[in-house]
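We modelled the chain as a single entity of 379 amino acids. Its sequence is:
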Amino acid sequence: MLIRELTGDDADETRRLRRVAFGSTSEDDPVRPGRRGLLAELDGRPAAVLTITGFHQFYGGLPVPMGGIGGVAVDPSARGRGVASGLLDRALTDLRDHGQPLSVLYATVPALYRSRGWERAGVFEWVDFPIDRLPAGPRIAARPATTDDLDALHACYADLAATVNGLVDRSKPGVDVADVLNLDVVTVVPGHDGEVRGFLTAERNRDGLRVFDLVGRDATTQLGLLRSLTSWAGLLDQVSLRVTDPAVTGLLTNQAIRYTVNTSTWLLRVVDLPAAVAARGWPTAPALKDAAVDLDITDDHAPWHAGRQRLVVEDGSVRVEPGGTGAVRLHARALGPWFSGMQDTHALRRAGLLDGDGDAALLDRLVGAPGVPRLADFF
């Protein structure tokens, strides 16, 4: 099996593989600024493909470089021959070489990705709201967005994203914020000196109205944007709202006891633990006394960080350095849900992903688990 970098000349084969695997395919170029890929060949023919898009994902208020893996497709004739596993192994080295200590994917075959160290670490959710249950918020001054609003709109989103573990910063080249203007509805609430106080983006299709983002800097703006959705009454019975800001869906809307949530889970892989820890924000660290926990990382597919490591908290900063007793043993799959805050060490221990006699409580105190980690982008 030969695994090589994907090139623009492979676009037709990439689309063929994905069409066969998924039944349909995007016409987007598989290789473009911010996106690269890998292609596996068997007997001289393309047999499997994946792409990696460069993102930055917020943890503890800081954006950590992350490679988003998507479109993993294997030709039917090549399945069961270790092609997908080989691609993923090569992808781990590629991610490290590109300075991306984290990787995220949406798993259609979880067992495959778990065997390579990815594990469930957050959610991607849509909530369906009957229009008559939307709050009667205030009227606000809103207008359609223009190209002149893009920087301020992105700043409004980024300020929110920095407070929600898991959200990506939507920076170039991985994301082009100008693409938002291709949607059917893009509304902004202007503030002073060109600031955007909030915005709403949505698309109308045969199934109804899909609201991709409803973001506001304050409750008045959020409630006003929710009120604007009631203008669809008579045309629609309900709207679907992607959960970007959990405060909107969790604290400002009027769901009954039972309501419909469509949830996808995403899997996180810590590719390089020392680099990931160095890039992440640790808001609780300044309040902790200097301390350390000795780890022993089991990771057959990322040997560069496997073995004994010490996670050290010192003078309010956190680092990982080689050495220690290895008292707390962590499987590669444990690193993602711990790093994101999705699972604490008690759950990891019950799942058989953490063991040993060492005191792992410092790991939980560091992460703090401030809410469910979320993504609001699909790739």
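As a brief sanity check on the tokenised model: Residues 267-331+348-367 form a domain with the Nonspecific Lipid-transfer Protein; Chain A fold (CATH 3.30.1050.10). Residues 83-97 form the longest helix (15 residues).
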